Amino acid sequence: MSVDNNIFSQNLSSKDFAKLKDFIDESCGIKLSENKRSMVEGRLRKRIRALNLSGYSEYIDLVLSNGSNSAEQMHLIDVITTNKTDFFREPNHFTLMTEKILPYLASTFELGTRETLNVWSSASSTGEEPYTIAMVLANYFGLGGNFNVFATDINTAVLQAAKKDVYTEEKASDIPFDYKKKYMLRSINRADKLVRFIPEIRSKTKFGRNNLKDEKYIVPTQVDIAFCRNVIIYFDAPTQESILNKICSYIKPGGFLFMGHSESVHGMKLPIRNYAPTVYIKE
Ligand SMILES: C[S@@+](CC[C@H](N)C(=O)[O-])C[C@H]1O[C@@H](n2cnc3c(N)ncnc32)[C@H](O)[C@@H]1O
User: Fold this and answer.
1) Which residue's alpha carbon is at the smallest distance from atom 13 of ligand 1?
2) What is the distance between the alpha carbons of residues 70 and 64, in angstroms, rounded to a whole number?
3) Annotated catalytic residue, options 16, 78, 153, 165
4) Which fold is adopted by the domain 7-80?
5) Model confidence over 161-220: pLDDT tens digits?
6) Contact, 201 vs 131, CB < 8 A?
7) Measured between alpha carbons, how far is 177 from 139 in angstroms, rounded to an integer?
8) In the annotation, is 25 catalytic?
9) Order of strands, edge to edge, in the sheet holding 184-186?
10) How is the chain split into domains, by residue range?
11) How much distance in Å is there from the Cα of 187 to the middle of ligand 1?
12) For residue 128, how far is its CA from the centre of ligand 1 (angstroms)?
C-alpha cells in the first residue's frame, strides 16, 4: 500500500480530530469546536514536518502514547493555545486599579494588615499583562515598593518569550509615554527597534508554568489581586466555574478578581461579589 507522505495534501480526519479534542479538553480544559479543525491542521503541519512523520495519524498516536506532561504533549498544548495579548489591554482595569483599588489596598498597609502586595496574572501569555501590572504598581508604590507579580501560563513558549523580556517598539506603542520613559530601555542598536523593561520591573515579575485545570497551582502565596482575563472563554461552563472557584481560593478575603470584558460569571456559584464591570471582590 502506498502512503501519502506529503502533509500538504492531507486532511486531519474526523477520527483523529476527535482524539485530539478529547486530549486537549482533558489536559487543559480547552474546547476545540469543529470550526477550529483547519486552524489545528495548519498549526500541526509544521510540527509533523519537523519530526519527519508521515502525517496527522502518526503524530496523534505518538502524542497520545506518551505519558502525561511529556515534552510532545506540552508542545502540542503550546501549538493549540491562543495567546493574543497587549500591554494595557482593557485599559479601564488599570485606571480602576490606580484610582480605587490601590489606594484602598495601600490603606490596609498603613493599618498593618498587609506587608506585601501580591498580584497574580493567571494566563499571562507573552508577558504584556504582568509587566503592565508591574508598571502600574511601580507607578503607585515606587520601584522599591513591597509588591510582587506572579505570572503563570500553560504554554511554555509564551513563558519563555515573557522571561526574555524583549518587545518590538510597535508592540510597546500601547504603553503610555511616561511609563515607557520610566520603566523601559531601548536596544543599544536603535535600528533594531526593540525595547525591554528595566531590571527593577523584571525582578518584581516572576514567571512559572501552571495549568489552571490542575488540582493545585504553583502560586507561592495568597494574592491581593488575581487577573484571569481572556482565558475562560476557551472552557465550557462547568470547567469555567471549577477553575474560577480554585482561583478564588488563592485570593485573600477582600481581594480582587479581574476578568476579561467578554467574560461572564453569570449563574456560577463563586465566593465573589461584583465591584465594577468584570471586576469582583472576594468575600
Ligand atoms: C488570549 S491569552 C490572554 C492573555 C492575557 N490574560 C490577556 O488578557 O491579554 C490566553 C492565555 O491563556 C493560556 N491558557 C489556556 N489554557 C490554559 C490553562 N488551562 N492553564 C493556564 N493557562 C492557559 C494560553 O496559553 C494563553 O497564553
Assistant:
1) 123
2) 10
3) 153
4) Chemotaxis Receptor Methyltransferase Cher; domain 1 (1.10.155)
5) 999 999 999 999 999 999 999 999 999 999 999 999 999 999 999 999 999 999 989 888
6) yes
7) 13
8) no
9) 167-168, 194-197, 184-186
10) 7-80, 92-282
11) 28
12) 12
CB-ligand 1 contact for 81 (6 Å cutoff): yes
Chain centroid offset of residue 244 CA: 14
226 lines ligand 1 (CB under 6 A): no
> Whose C-alpha lies nearest to ligand 1, atom 23?
154
Residue 231: CB within 6 Å of ligand 1?
yes
Nearest CA to ligand 1 atom 9: 85
For residue 242, the SS3 value is helix
Instruction: Please write the tens of the pLDDT for every residue from 218-275.
Output: 888 899 999 999 999 999 999 999 999 999 999 999 999 999 999 999 999 999 999 9
Residue 94 CB contacts under 8 Å (≥ 6 apart), including other chains: 88, 132, 133, 136
Distance from C-alpha of 261 to C-alpha of 19, rounded to nearest angstrom: 32
Mutate to test the pocket of ligand 1, among 88, 122, 126, 153 (most ligand atoms within 8 A of CB): 153
Ligand 1 binding pocket includes 154 (Cβ within 6 Å): yes
Chain centroid to CA 165: 15
Going by CATH, does the domain composed of 92-282 fall within 2.40.160.40? no
- Please tell me the pTM assigned to this model: 0.94
Q: Catalytic annotation on 202?
A: no
CB atoms within 10 A of CB 191: 6
What are the residues whose beta carbons fall under 8 Å from the beta carbon of 167, sequence distance 6 or more?
Answer: 128, 194, 195, 196
- For residues 20 and 40, what is the distance between their CA atoms, to the nearest angstrom? 10
Whether the CB-CB separation of 225 and 101 falls below 8 Å is answered with yes
Strand 147-153 with 205-209, pairing: parallel
For ligand 1, mutation pick of 87, 150, 228, 231 (most atoms within 8 Å of CB):
231
